[in-house]
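Chapter review: from sequence to fold.
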Amino acid sequence: MSQDKVPSSKIERASKFLKTGLKVGGNYLKYYGQKAMFQDVEPEELEKANANDIFDSFAELKGSALKVAQMLSMDTINFSQSFTSVMQKAQYSVPPMSGPLAVQAFTKSIGKSPDKVFDSFNINAHKAASMGQVHIAYKDGKKLAVKIQYPGVGDSVKSDLNMVRTVAHRVIGVSPQEMGPYFDEVEARLLEEADYRLELKNSLEFRSECADMEGIVFPNYYPEYSSERVITMEWIDGLHMKEFLELNPKKEVKTTCARNLWNLYEFQIHKLRKLNADPHPGNFLFREDGTVGVLDFGCTKRLTPDLYEDYFLMAEPALFEDKERAEAVLLKLEILRPTDSTERRAYLMGLFGRLISHIAQPYHDGWFDFNNESFYHEITEIGTEISKLRELRGSKDFLFLNRTYFGLYALFQQLDAQLETVCQYKDFVRKPIPA
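The token string follows.
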């Protein structure tokens, strides 16, 4: 069902967030009331109720609010499985804005109506996403994908995130101060993604730099039919993850898709030192020959030399054999803090050493089964222990890279992938990192 109006003014959006906050507060009252009456109620029920109320609100608001939901769906460390499983709907279940509203948004941004620009334009959205929706158009016999940003999205990122913070810290149980670095990073990425001119520039750049990669397909782009709020590109055939898996593709096809994605991210991270910062399923098209179409480079991350070296230094087993050196690296990445006691540092080094060991395990093994249930069970246990800290330990860059890897691993898990995972660009000693 389409929306005839997307809340675009700050007042409208703030009102929606306020109602969501009241619902979350009501869920807490109900939960603790049941506990007071000695009723058998699990914390997961509260988390799921909160997640559903937040998702429903974010889906209506779209834009940065819905984008946050997508990011939360990939953060299995700081959020519970019951919470992230609901947020995963943000990857697919997005109601589009109505055709007339889409035409109005296009005309306002381009200066002409779609029928004056294209030979034909389908006013009904083909696919709706968080920041905008895609329409099919034709020009000179070529099939095109026209992505139109929802009204008000680009102007409401900062105010939306301020509202999200007030809801999120109550759900997670972490102070707004602790959540500051996390949301600072989210805000920076969303401001970039709301600028379609920047996305066009990034897309052309990545397309050129990754041109020689096998198995990865990038569309052509049309700057003359694009603007700050509209981006037009060549249509690429393929299916999103959910639709692709529903066709029950052959094992070798899924494996080829996963291998192509692994190679793409290895090249971006270790060679280009920049990457598509949003590896959720909606940004890829999977094809029956195993090739993968990459659609969205609005959200990118450039890795500074220090960030790259420090992050991947943690994956070297020898680091944790040198306590002073390990402490220095973990302090730089803000996992440890100067105010931590000796006992606290020892505990956190052990806890995050386990986390880092799991993130790096595919590199150390050199061949990895991404459908290994024990691997994800251990990650869940570590995430549960970290969430009990009620602190977001780690710099915004550390949190971001973790989310990227876990998002990528989740894709491989859905593809039931067993891959060779030797890093072509950096040597890793293949033995377990000490806890």
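Two observations follow directly from the output. Confidence is low (pLDDT under 50) at residues 431-435. The first strand starts at residue 120 and ends at 121.
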